Amino acid sequence: MGNNPVTNLGGKTLSFFQALGRSGLFFTESLLKIFTYPLPIVKIIEQIYFIGFKSIFVICLTALFSGMVLGLQGYYTLVKFGSEGLLGTAVALTLVRELGPVLTAIMVIARAGSAMTAEIGIMRISEQIDALETMNINPVKFLVTPRIGAALICFPILTAIFDIVGIAGGFITGSVLLGINPYIYYYRAVESVVMADVTGGFIKAVTFAAIVNTVCCYNGFFTHLRTGDFGSKGVSLSTTSAVVNSCILVLIADYILTSFLL
Predict the structure, then answer these.
(1) Are 215 and 246 in contact (CB under 8 A)?
(2) DSSP secondary structure code for residue 35 in this structure
(3) CA 67 to CA 27: how far, in whole Å?
(4) In sequence order, which residues have a C-beta less than 8 Å from that of residue 165 and are 6 or more positions away?
(5) CA-based R_g, the chain, Å
């Protein structure tokens, strides 16, 4: 590629859309193979344990302190207007509509997404994926499909856990530490959240699951195609790229979905 900036920009734009198309096909293939015989039920359960169960502690810890910070900030903002009784509403809606799905996705990216990219990337550079193909085992179905299936199940559940623990964190700050009537906090939190808020949060969680797993698995699976970076260095750069791109795409998708759901 020459030094002409317009040529370089065109080349990078073309590469971006090619990668986007390949990622879409990669996700579609891995998703459809969930329903092909033999069903990968056992491997999906193994991935549910890795992606979901092992993330519960870090999700709960993040949710608790996020809720406590929301309670603290919300109280000192609302008390200026004599509206501290609305703290339950502010904490619940903020968590259910936005912070729950987004922070859950980001924490899963940090804990499980990076590990998925590194594991699949190492299998690629050590030719284990080539060995699977030699044994007539489809590597996408063997490696990627169980992770996609598990993520689509785990993300909504983890988001629900995040919302509940976060609201409890706001209760600790607002009612236990700052003296808001517990009944008012609970009533406002329950009364303000409607089914559309919960449904919107779950739609975001499922969308983020598809994005995170596609980006992380795609970067690991095609580590060998990175130009100029090979071996362990290629895996480390693929892992970094997967984490950064996943976080950016989650935030972009969150804005787009919020625009449609409001």
Answers:
(1) yes
(2) G
(3) 34
(4) 59, 60, 63, 64, 67
(5) 21
- Report the C-alpha gap between 115 and 147 in whole angstroms: 12
| Sign of torsion over alpha carbons 138, 140, 142, 146 | negative
Helix (H, G, I), strand (E, B) or coil at 181: coil
Query: What's the rounded Cα separation, in Å, for the pair 176 and 46?
Result: 40
- Number of residues that make up the chain: 262
pLDDT of the residue at 2: 55
Q: Which two tokens stand for residue 143?
A: 């490696």
Q: What are the per-10-residue average pLDDT scores of the chain (262 residues)? A: 74 82 88 84 92 93 94 90 87 92 94 91 89 90 91 94 95 90 90 91 94 92 77 85 92 93 78
Cβ neighbors of 258 (< 8 A, separation 6 or more) are: 97, 98
The conformation of residue 113, written as its DSSP 8-state character, comes to I
**What's the one-letter identity of residue 176?**
V
End-to-end CA distance of the chain: 44
151 with 212: CB under 8 angstroms? yes
